[in-house]
Design goal:
UDP-n-acetylglucosamine1-carboxyvinyl-transferase, Chain; binds uridine-diphosphate-N-acetylglucosamine
Length: 446
Amino acid sequence: MVRATTGTLGEFEGLDPLVEPVPGRGWDVLAVWGGARLAGTIPVSAAKNAVLPILAASLLADGPTVLRGVPDLEDVRTMCRLLTELGCEVVWQPSRTLRIQNRGLQVHEAPYELVRLMRASFLVMGPLLARAGRAKTALPGGCAIGSRPIDLHLKGFAALGARMEFAHGRIQVEGRGLSGARIYLDFPSVTATENIMMAACLARGTTLIENAAQEPEVVDLAGYLNAAGGRVRGAGTDVVRVEGVDALTGCEYQVIPDRIEAGTFMLAAAMTGGNIRLENVVPEHLKAVVAKLREAGAEVAEESDTSLRVRGPIRPRAVDIKTLPFPGFPTDLQAPAMAMLTRAEGTSIVTETVFENRFLHVDELKRMGADIRIEGRSAIVRGVERLTGAPVRATDLRAGACLVLAGLMAEGITEITGVQHIDRGYADFVGKLQRVGARVERGTMA
Ligand code: UD1
């Protein structure tokens, strides 16, 4: 039933990949055989959520931006297409290096077909506004994880002196000669902090972003902006201070490792009673995950400044998890962590405080025999002795990872559709799992 093949999200354009098959080919499916104890080494790729804002920020620079070690992800390809549409020359060089040269922005609009594929496309708004004095886009799409407003981004742009206009599902932001301002974010939104930071880089005077997001990806964006001649201070704290400069030059930059990818494989090791060494990690970024894995009975050892080893227990213990902005437990690991808890000894409470409606994986886990009840923003997960493989559907990126992990623990075969969601954010997911002994295959289903 499952035939090996490959596919890219490009082939799904204009389709809803969840319900419509690829023309002439059928649905992409991942088949996961449960039962293997994962063991070996996984090199972690660079962080998707750092690469995307840095690619958007390259619009601010006059000279070329050279990014090293860029992961092979659909979201990265989507952002590259967007930059090309806006007038940049984007060239892949050896060793996954990307060179972006801004050729003078002729277009100021992020097209709907790209924005609907990836919500992070909205990150070009800040740079376009700063550079070209105007930016237009459709309201963003992205993962189906609840209402995801953009009011905080717009509040920031308005404070810097921009005017907004909504019409026909599009939003236009306009304002030449932005001026620094003091902006308080009602929630420490990651991309709002990043968008405002980028817009403020070329504004006159000083901008203070209060209650700013403190995620490592925000710090990495500040690192890039400063390397390119910007003046950003305080990234990683709750107040970011941006002194406007006249222009940014280009620079060479190496993006931080992906803490969510690392966390996903750490959970995979823990829940399969495995023994995995992760290379290219920043342990500092993973403190909340390490704490929860230890509570669940896993052994986690820092083998060097850039590597961690995780050894799983025979059966994990139940732990309560509450998602929070960094340095709290990341919402992007809530679904993968829930996979582990379905088979834990005891009852766990998982509380999602960052996004509403981020429990779409729960019904799919239940099809595999999990015992989960949702009460408001919490999921009560009673650990069961065994999961059994079933046909399930990934509804978003992290839900997809969650189902693959659940399949690794389940008896028999789990068939996962909606695989394209996983391609958005995990580089060579199948290959990396196979490397540590998982039996996972990709194919199509008629
Ligand atoms: C980023 C990450 C995503 C991660 C999320 C939270 C990228 C490309 N994506 O998404 O993987 O899950 O951070 O860590 O970096 N909010 C508002 N108004 C706004 C913006 C956000 O109310 O203008 C709310 C959202 O509805 C949500 C919360 O803030 O409840 C957090 O969202 P936010 O931090 O903005 O997530 P993203 O930046 O979209």
